[in-house]
């Protein structure tokens, strides 16, 4: 089988490529250049897709003896991921750019180009399991719960999953590093990537201010009283506690959290932690990782963050919407996040959170 391996320059994709070679496939490595201005590539290991990462990926490919290419997908990445990220924050929502990148870039643009070039599948270093039964594919959690990435893959479709390979699904991270060390791969001890790859310094609020500009606004308490000011609602997300810079302390001395964001009048509402409690989530734009949409009401688990706890719930799905009734209260659920639904360890589908109450 001809396999295209997306090589980020980290240890996971390096070992994924090595395993594809060991399995006897015809393997080609590709690194994705996602930044429109290479001079802004970061140094170090704060995120992925840096200049150093591309050099590391090339050296690993040389060690494995496989062809290696760099694909410039910067324009599509800017339109589908970066611009979407900025627009979502401008609208008062909190997007997940890694999930969006998987949906639009790694398993759409790369897969499309790979198939056009005659490849049979795309392999990545994601930690998730694929079970195949004929033409149907089941996306499941990985063996290493601490590294499981099924949440950020929850937006993938059956067509995409059929052409995907996740060689690390049954391996814990420590064993992946040991395998890389034994193979002499330079990425064996490289730190994991963190933060948002297109925000070089990790300052999300600063990045958004550069993109959207400053706009003075008010911070209100739950009763509508002014307790502070800000220079742009895009600097906040529901559930945020730090960096509020409130001028009026709470009467009970307890910390306050962002309860809501109003882009129309550029106000941010804060209040006590208990006001963040929700039991119902409304989702839009559902997508299905299973062969057939699971419509109607059913019992399952819902996860709203990449490494969040799965929450038991009753899930009622329609063609264009999903209603999630949680068994227990949840806190800090922000519009724009993805709600990924599971049946046990099986990923059923995902939707974008529109509201929670």
Q: Main attributes?
A:
357 residues; Rossmann fold; Elongation Factor Tu (Ef-tu), domain 3; 3 domains; six-stranded antiparallel beta barrel; five-stranded parallel β-sheet; 7 helices
Protein topology:
Blueprint: E1 2-6, H1 11-22, E2 26-33, H2 51-64, E3 68-72, H3 74-90, H4 97-116, E4 121-123, E5 129-133, E6 136-140, H5 158-162, E7 164-165, H6 173-182, H7 204-212, E8 217-220, E9 226-230, E10 257-262, E11 267-271, E12 277-288, E13 296-303, E14 311-317, E15 321-331, E16 338-343, E17 346-356
Parallel strand pairs: 1-2, 1-4, 2-3, 4-7, 8-11
Antiparallel strand pairs: 5-6, 8-9, 10-11, 12-15, 12-17, 13-14, 13-16, 14-15, 16-17
Helix pairs in contact: 1-2, 1-6, 3-4
Could you give a quick summary of the protein structure above?
The chain has 357 residues and is of the alpha/beta class. The chain is built from 7 helices and 17 strands. It folds into 3 domains: 181 residues, Rossmann fold; 54 residues, no CATH class; 81 residues, Elongation Factor Tu (Ef-tu), domain 3 (Beta Barrel).
Question: What would you note in describing this structure?
Answer:
The protein is α/β, with parallel strands linked by helices. The chain folds into 3 domains: 2-182, Rossmann fold; 214-267, no CATH class; 276-356, Translation factors (Elongation Factor Tu (Ef-tu), domain 3), CATH 2.40.30.10. The protein is built from 7 helices and 17 strands. Strands 12-15-14-13-16-17 form a 6-stranded antiparallel β-barrel. Helix 1 packs parallel to helix 2 (51-64), helix 1 (11-22) crosses helix 6 and helix 3 runs antiparallel to helix 4 (97-116). The longest helix has 20 residues, at 97-116. It is globular and about 65 Å long. The model is unreliable at 39-47 (pLDDT under 50).
